[in-house]
Fold each of these.
Amino acid sequence: MRAAIIDEPGKLRVGEAPDPTPGAADVVIKVGACGICGTDLHIADGEFPPAPFPLVPGHEFAGEVVEIGSDVRTGIAVGDRVAVDPSLFCGYCTPCRTGRGNLCANWGATGDTVNGAFAEYVAVPAVNAYRLPDSLSMGQGALVEPLSCAVHGLDVFGAQIGERILVVGAGTMGLLLTQLLAGSGARVSVVDRNAARLPLATTFGAEHVATSVAELDAAPFDASVDVTGAPKAIEDAFDALRRGGRLQIFGVAADTARISLSPFRIYNDEIRIVGSMAVLDSFEPALRLLESGRVSSEGLISHTLPLEEFPEAVGMVRAGTGVKIQIAP
Ligand SMILES: [Zn+2]
Ligand SMILES: [Zn+2]
């Protein structure tokens, strides 16, 4: 089959890879759509330590079931359209056994630690496949994973009615978080250096939008979420908090990145800082939100490119082109 392959950090190509064969509990999916995410860029740059090389990336995907392992008992059938939770939790470490599988000591994910869906076919555990309603396209199916990360972010972060919340970054994740926060009754302000992204943030419920925190007169905020992973943006998000505020670090930074925050302020103002890592029991809720229309995908999928153009598509993501760029193998 054809697949996008990262041979080593910085070396990316589209070439031939062996067809996946399903393990006893797996299904093989013919990929319909797979989104490119900031994490894929970190993997390509060697900044995401769990990723081995060579690797076929791709963890935001939907497709059609074409083969079923001998021991699959989920009632899934060949021909089913599914979205796939990429999470691979071991099930026996302490985090897994205390309800925090996303922090699994042996954490893995399809497309991050084993071959993923920037390919014609991918094998996944059958229990990770969720049937896609007829009303949702493959492209929308590939948005369930990023939305499920945003749902987990809210699970961790909480949002109170009427709170003033700053979202830094208006890419796909920032726009999904904006919808969830506004839908939860928070008053959302959104900042992105790329002004072209701001009208969508307004459409999705942001009250104030700007290209920098300094331009917003809504500060200080009760809470802020950084969706960029950029150290300067995280520091701005921290500085914009009121006393007693909280900061969520949602965006993926390079593993070597460092930030500079005032420990006195964290102490004296009782600032809480909390992370949010991937998906935890949030895939089904995300699927329901998209199916019901409570979260809109209108305008989010800006480009759909063929697999052979994967390197160009990655270049577009790096350049900040559009919103969500997907590959349709
Ligand atoms: Zn992702
Ligand atoms: Zn585990």
Note: The chain has two domains: 2-143+300-327, 148-275.
Amino acid sequence: MKLPKSGRDATEILDTLNALKTKDVDWKGGKCFAYVYDAGPEAMDLLKNSFNLFMTENGLDPSSFPSCLELERDVIAAALDLQEAPETAAGSFTSGGTESILLSVKTARDYYRSIRPEITSPEIILPETAHPAFYKAFKYFDIKPVQTKVDPTSYEAIPSEIEKAITENTIMIVASAPSYGMGIMDPIPAIAAIAKKHHLLCHVDSCVGGMYMPFAKKHGYEMYDFNLSVDGVTQLSMDFHKWGYAAKGASAILYKDSALRRHQIFAWSGWMGYTVVNPTVMSTKSGGPVAACWAILNHIGEEGYMDLVGKTQAASEKIRAAIKDIEGLRLLGNPKGNLFAFTAEDFDIFALSEAMKTYGWYIQPQFGFNTVPANIHLSVGASNAPHVDDLIHDLRKCVTDLRSNGTPPLMNELPAQLLEMFENAGPELFDLLGSTLGTDGSDLPDNMREINNLMNLMPSQYRDQLLVEYMNRLYVR
Ligand SMILES: Cc1ncc(COP(=O)(O)O)c(C=O)c1O
């Protein structure tokens, strides 16, 4: 578009915006098992109203907007309480899990620069299940990733593998509570003990579990301890905009010792303008996310979260039982919460996600990596719970259909000439694969089955190269 010469009518604009959403996944019907966290219409209205109330306030300057400061202090205090943090602890409100992780990694790097300046090439150890946000942080802040194997059956991180990977350049160990892919809790007490023994920082990534697992635990579900009370854990990320049901743009990075947070804060007065002091990545920031987060935490409250988690746990267990019962499907590992994944034993799993799409379901395909096969991930939320029987019915039907009708034959292995082509290709790789992919990259394909199959067989570095090129084309200019 170009800027219109004269401004358009507001109603017409809102109609156009609403019409744009019609092609999106239908999360309102409870059939989308990813991306959206919906605690019902009353909660949604409160989020919108509280967000709107603070949309224009600027969290950049707490002296001009003490309201934003107060809201943030409250939200962080609630998070610290939930994670059983000691009095010494502190945290920051951030825009999401990725920002919390970026800040934690930057803090670790700068803290080590101050205490161990001889480490010029810092390393962070993380299991194969840790979230890509860490690798993003490593790229931004020039840290070497040291990836360790997880157990090939349970997908839990292996403490002894982590200890073996420690070198004189290690600064931090990462563990997940739980990891996203298969929803698995790592043995955090054992990992944190290793970190403490070697005088290393230990980050628990509880982005997806921080507002869920404390309540699941109170419901009596057995799991490893994972919060800030665990000896050796030094920092923890948790998102409100997932199972806290807050508006998007709401997460926290928490440190057991507030002294560590100092390494996160940026201040600059050496220029010809106003002084900048930012605890987090953003400078100018809307007060909307923190206000909506404060509102939803107060609205739902402990009893409300217990109720939401109770319903979600029951729904998750029902789906897991069905997966174990449906011939041809296999649940991966032994997940405790509302995130889990399953694979297909004898048919194309990517055909299943496409088949379910035709019944209106969005379930998320994931590529295989090392010991985990290609699979489908489900994140079950409160809004999905009433639709679980329908989901199981359609899942059963689609699996039966696919197993009896078969799907078109697929490559089991990439042809050697294709691999050779990857090795020598740059951005033109996309063009080379254009006909196989059935897209020139400028649009979103309807059916992802073939593309997913091809990418599933690619080594991950080529997959990433291809996806970077795809994104670069998709956003056009
Ligand atoms: C375990 C974990 N860490 C980090 C993230 C990144 O969070 P965000 O998408 O809010 O940046 C996610 C997202 O699902 C996650 O599950």
Note: Residues 96-98, 131, 133, 176, 179-180, 205, 207-208, 239, 251 surround pyridoxal-5'-phosphate (CB under 6 Å).
Amino acid sequence: MSKPVLISIPVSNLGRSVQMLLEEKGVDYEFETASPHSDAVNAVHPLGKVPALRHGELTLCESEAMARYIDKVFDGPKFFPEDPTLCAKVDQWVSLHNTAFDTSMIRQYVLGYVLPKMAGKEPNREQIDASLPIVKKHLAVLESALEGGFLVGDSLTYADLANFPTLAYLPDFPESAEMLKEFPNVVAYIDAIGARESAKKTQPRRG
Ligand SMILES: N[C@@H](CCC(=O)N[C@@H](CS)C(=O)NCC(=O)O)C(=O)O
């Protein structure tokens, strides 16, 4: 079977989750850089978003679908546990990330800085300010869940790989960097997962 090809951009938090999984499992893969709504992405993803995945005849969109497929098809440690209780908890944290934390932390807060900057404009203060209480509430949820160092059980799962790339952006922006001082478990988590080889290899360039 051919190598899987992950189509994304290095700054995509959702693409980084899937790429970290490939790294953690030791899969031989290719990374194809293609922006959202480019021809290469539109050919695979019906909404033109990244990440997208090609593996032989299979094309996939949605980061969690890719992660589940990769975890099943390739050898290496499992990141969706066999145990139904633990696996349900992984699903819970992936869903909380994809439906709430990603929205508040990335789409509303971080992109409130990044998208205007790319267009040579000032940060979108209204959007940033509106996101801050929600980001804080979401960090408080994670803070109490991270007493044990991982979101589920006592080892790395896809729950961590889904959430880490989003949290890793927060020290780089002023209000969230300040906010993190109240959330030591989250800071320790960002540092610990950030020290893994899979995080170092997928670290997007800053600036
Ligand atoms: N639910 C999708 C979300 C993908 C997504 O929103 N990707 C962002 C980049 S991180 C994107 O392509 N944004 C461009 C757009 O929404 O037009 C997934 O989990 O893969």
Note: Residues 12-14, 36, 49-51, 62-63, 98 surround glutathione (CB under 6 Å).
